[in-house]
Design a protein that fits this description.
mainly alpha, 2 domains, 72% helix, elongated, disordered N terminus
Length: 221
C-alpha cells in the first residue's frame, strides 16, 4: 500500500507540470501531501538541501548548485520531478498567501497570491468578495468577471463556482448588515443560491432565501 501511494503521489507530482495553470482537482492539503512526498523523494536522490533531521546535505548542495548553473541535474527523471516541485512550491506559497488574505481580510496578501497564480478562479472570487465588502465595486467587478471567464474557458463545474462564491460571502459574517454594500452583497448571495437550486435541484439551497430577501429589503442601510 505504501509503495502504491508513493507511485500515486509521484504521478500527481509529474502531472502538475501540465496542471499548473489550475490544479482544480487538488486542494491545498492534497498539494501539501504531494509536496511532502517530493521532498522525501528528492532526499533519496541527494537533491534536497537538508537531511530528514534538518542537517545540511552537502552532496545535495553540490548537485543543486550544478542544476542552478546549468539548468539541469544530468538525470532526466530528477529534472522532471524538480521542475514539478518548483511548480508545487509556488502553489504552496500562493495558497499560504490566499489563506492569510481570507483569514485577515488582507487585500495585499490576496493580490500577491493572484500574482503567483493568476488563473486560479477561487482566488479571484475571494478577492472579488473582499473588494465588494471594502466598497471597491470596480475591483469587485473586474475580479468577478475574470473568475467567471476562467470558469467558462476551463469548463469548470459551475456548482463548484457558486459554492465557492457562497463560502466567500459567508466569511463576511453578520457585519454584512452594516456594510454600505449590504444590498449588493445579499443580492449576490441570493443569486448564487438560486443558481445552485437550478443546477442541482437541491431545495436546501433555497431555504435561507426568504430571510435573505427580507434582510436585503428591510435591514440593509
Amino acid at each position: 500500500m505504501r509503495r502504491y501511494l508513493r507511485w500515486l503521489c509521484l504521478g500527481l507530482l509529474m502531472a502538475l507540470i501540465g496542471l499548473q495553470p489550475g490544479c482544480d482537482g487538488l486542494t491545498p492539503s492534497d498539494r501539501a501531501l504531494v509536496r511532502s512526498f517530493a521532498e522525501d523523494w528528492m532526499r533519496s536522490r541527494n537533491m534536497h538541501p537538508t537531511n530528514e533531521d534538518g542537517s545540511p546535505n552537502l552532496v545535495a548542495a553540490l548537485n543543486i548548485g550544478r542544476r542552478a548553473i546549468t539548468g539541469r541535474s544530468g538525470n532526466a527523471e530528477v529534472d522532471a520531478v524538480l521542475d514539478a516541485y518548483e511548480v508545487l512550491s509556488n502553489l504552496h506559497e500562493a495558497d499560504k498567501l490566499m489563506e492569510q488574505g481570507r483569514r485577515d481580510g488582507d487585500p495585499d496578501a490576496m493580490d500577491q497570491a493572484i500574482a503567483r497564480r493568476p488563473e486560479d478562479w477561487t482566488y479571484r472570487t475571494s478577492r472579488a468578495t473582499l473588494a465588494l465588502a471594502s466598497g471597491d465595486v470596480e475591483s469587485w467587478q473586474a475580479q468577478q468577471d475574470k473568475a467567471e471567464e476562467i470558469v467558462v474557458e476551463r469548463n469548470i463545474d459551475p456548482v463548484w463556482y457558486h459554492e465557492q462564491s457562497l463560502r466567500d460571502y459567508d466569511r463576511l459574517g453578520a457585519d454584512v448588515l452594516t456594510n454600505p454594500q449590504c444590498k449588493l452583497i445579499l443580492e449576490r448571495v441570493i443569486y448564487h443560491r438560486l443558481q445552485l437550486v437550478n443546477l442541482t435541484g437541491d431545495t436546501a439551497y433555497a431555504m435561507p432565501l426568504e430571510g435573505l430577501i427580507d434582510a436585503r429589503d428591510m435591514q440593509c442601510p
